[in-house]
Amino acid sequence: MSGDGVTTSRSRSKANASAGLKIERVWTTEGVHPYDEVTWERRDVVMTNWRDGSINFEQRGVEFPESWSVNAANIVTTKYFRGAVGTPEREWSLKQLIDRVVTTYRTAGEEYGYFASPADAEIFGHELTWMLLHQVFSFNSPVWFNVGTPSPQQVSACFILAVDDSMDSILDWYKEEGLIFKGGSGSGVNLSRIRSSRELLSSGGTASGPVSFMRGADASAGTIKSGGATRRAAKMVILDVDHPDIEEFVVTKAREEHKIRALRDAGFDMDLGGSDIVSVQYQNANNSVRVSDEFMSAVENGGGFDLRGRLDGSVIDTVDAKKLFRTISQAAWECADPGLQYDDTINDWHTCPETGRITASNPCSEYLHLDNSSCNLASLNLMKFLRADGGFEVEKFVKSVEFVITAMDISICFADFPTEKIGETSRAYRQLGIGYANLGALLMATGLPYDSEQGRSVAASITSLMTGTAYRRSAELAGVVGAYEGYARNAEPHKRVMRKHAAANDEIKPTSPVATAIVREATKQWTQGNKIGDKFGWRNAQASVLAPTGTIGFMMDCDTTGVEPDLALVKFKKLVGGGSMQIVNQTVPRALRSLGYPEEQVEAIIEHIADHGHVVDAPGLKPEHYPVFDCAMGERTIAPMGHVRMMAAIQPFVSGAISKTVNMPEAATVEDVEKIYFEGWKLGLKALAIYRDNCKVGQPLSVAKSNKATEPAAVETAPAAPAAVEKVIEYRPVRKRLPKKRPSETVSFSVGGAEGYLTASSYPDDGLGEVFLKMSKQGSTLAGVMDAFSVAISIGLQYGVPLETFVSKFTNMRFEPAGMTDDPDVRMAASVMDYIFRRLALDFLPYERRAELGIFTASERAAQLRAEADAEAAAVTGAELTAMASSAPVAEIPAKPEAVAQPAQEMADVAVAKPAPSVGSSTELLEAVIGKAADAPLCFTCGTKMRPAGSCYVCEGCGSTSGCS
């Protein structure tokens, strides 16, 4: 960096100061402090592990606005309040938290010459306070952790490291990564400079290769995690596709997945967090392959691809490009790794190529810039800019971006960094990462399907407006406090990238008046920004990324994170007085009204969603409106290519990349993965990762597992493992045949118009032992298949396979024919198999077993509804209102305009509130509703099941994340 004229002095910006910024009020009122505009209340925050009731955290009497949800207050209290609990130094009010951060930003802004006068600085502080108080935006977590405290002023969540081909550099990598993990952040690194295991050392021996050194780094990350961190280490490891060790790198995690399966089958504890999973390698990192246009073209056209040595660039080997691409896709199909990063696309949008190429990313793949650099993030809550009439507050959005970018740039002036190399690069290039959350909720609330041209048009328009405004403010800051120090060297490529963004903006095709208004303003921002930048340069080498917004998304009470669609239509809501309830997402009634449905139909549809978790066959809902309510999980899920197309629509308007994993169904094939990865390249994405449901064996610790712990364990009592294996080998199941004369009953059924007969025969003690299925004419293929299936099920029953095992496997199986049945106890069936095993469960399983599987008769369901109605009425008139009243005696009067503008949420809460099942998060609630397990880890802190957030996971219970933001 020395050749770039970079200085480490933090006073450089001050020396360049000129007139300073004039700040105008947008959200605030002159003479009124933002704190005086809201109603405050005291709450008790008691966080418990819902599985065993143990208390994880307790702080009573904390102060928050009454408009903040219980979840938001709980997460801010536990995560962001500083000071030891129980001491006078402990923060207890949101006012203290916001003041601690905003005062630091305002003071630094004045010190470094950002404001024209003290009055402008005061307005800036009030505007930031108002926006944070009203959940308009949030800084990333390190800001809340560190700013204004005696700790180092660490403001960045994302780091990129560099490793050269020397032992000193490799050992420095281990150390630097460890320091970053210790602080709760994540890092990424490209290992392609390390020579391959097929090259020689100067001493004449053979090099170890990068995969070998990955083992040491993985062990280090695992050790630091187990040494006190509450989450897995977040790291990214990248290798270029032309590295001679690429094939070994690609299959590392897939091979370990095979090991996990073998060890699990041998009786070892291979659950995530289990005692034996630590023996598996490479589990603490996300792996990505950096592919070039040359390689992807070879895949497209067929042919060889050269793998080159790291020392002299000579060809070490030539491989079949299609075969290598298949290997990459096969490994991703098996274990979700590796993802792809499209190198030429990334560097084509690089503002600073004269300083160096972009070789790596942070763990979630949204931050892409120079080696040994960092990025601090902040995200806007898009729902705060949606008007009651469905319009978008364009002017307020523009002004809000100005405030946030200004604050983020100020933070670099006072920030501390984990290493001096990172500090030098970050201060010289001042990379920022403004982004947003709640895109999925915004689209649904306005009646636009996520996977539609209209939805992508609005998303692209908003993203272009955000980044265009950010760069325009960055150019204005350059005129006030100077361009970033590396700008002079990179002026022409930086201008070229700005023109590329502006040209992409011109290609947006608005499909609605809202999108048209946003695009018009975005065009204005790009034009003005590039004109100012031509004169002064830009203050920041990077302006925007789209991060997962995990914990801060909960802080802002967002329904959806980052660019994600809604997880599901039902959610799990905590109550002020304790307890929880199931509600329909607040965006659903707003969407129905946007689509023109009258109030009585809205209520009926909401009730249907509350009962079923989806909109299919909702009374009065038009089928053409079903896509508006498609979600990431549930009955109607967004197709994988729908996610890819949304990423492609917004990628040209993001400085960095997009943190998002494309979820694929379990039935997806390797060819499907290949198509997704190939289309990602064609559509101009910078990075892409996939996850196929249930592809990983190592699953979180579960209730089922803990129950097994109470049973006698053969392994514990056996003197040695070989004896236990010997017993398994000697065991042989015994077939219990039915007597010649046995009781049976036959049921005729119709599923979706297809008719058939089910005959079930029992043992004398009433246990099911035989099944016959008759469909279609004798001699037809279907009749033969059903006969064979009947024999297989019957033999399984006679060998002791429990009926509930078959029921759990075959219910919810979906294929045609499906639909209405003529059975009053099973009105709808997803397939013939779904109906058959529901009918068998009703006839032969006791109520307790059926209740666990969610299978009830019509009379049982009716009784449940009556009981729920009685319980709900009692709750509303009794203890719950008492608890709420005692915690907030005067807080029932809405104090904010937003409260008046959002009657949908209040109506939905009252209309469809139900006692939540025995769950601890929205993910677990969704599992209970749809009867299918979600492939998500349990939180290491509080034990609840996490939910996806970009390419990471976040816990609704305590706000912990599996990523770096």
UniProtKB/TrEMBL annotation:
Q: Show where the Ribonucleotide reductase large subunit C-terminal domain sits.
A: 156-691
Q: Which UniProt keywords apply?
A: Cobalamin, Cobalt, Disulfide bond, DNA synthesis, Nucleotide-binding, Oxidoreductase
Domain named Ribonucleotide reductase class II vitamin B12-dependent N-terminal: residues: 45-135
Taxonomically, which superkingdom? Bacteria
Which InterPro entries does this one have? Answer: RdRp_reductase_class-2 (IPR050862), RNR_2_N (IPR013678), RNR_lg_C (IPR000788), RNR_NrdJ/NrdZ (IPR013344), TSCPD_dom (IPR024434)
Under Gene Ontology molecular function, one entry of this record is: cobalamin binding
UniProt domain TSCPD: residue ranges: 739-842
SUPFAM superfamilies under this entry? Answer: PFL-like glycyl radical enzymes
Co-factor requirement: adenosylcob(III)alamin
The GO biological-process annotations, alphabetized, read as: DNA biosynthetic process
Reaction it catalyzes: a 2'-deoxyribonucleoside 5'-diphosphate + [thioredoxin]-disulfide + H2O = a ribonucleoside 5'-diphosphate + [thioredoxin]-dithiol
- How is this protein named in the record? Vitamin B12-dependent ribonucleotide reductase
The organism encoding this protein is Micromonospora arborensis
The UniProt record lists the EC number as: 1.17.4.1
Q: Which family does it belong to?
A: Belongs to the ribonucleoside diphosphate reductase class-2 family.
Per its UniProt record, what Gene3D superfamilies does this chain match? Answer: 3.20.70.20
Q: Respond yes or no to whether keyword DNA repair is given for this record.
A: no
- Protein purpose: Catalyzes the reduction of ribonucleotides to deoxyribonucleotides. May function to provide a pool of deoxyribonucleotide precursors for DNA repair during oxygen limitation and/or for immediate growth after restoration of oxygen.
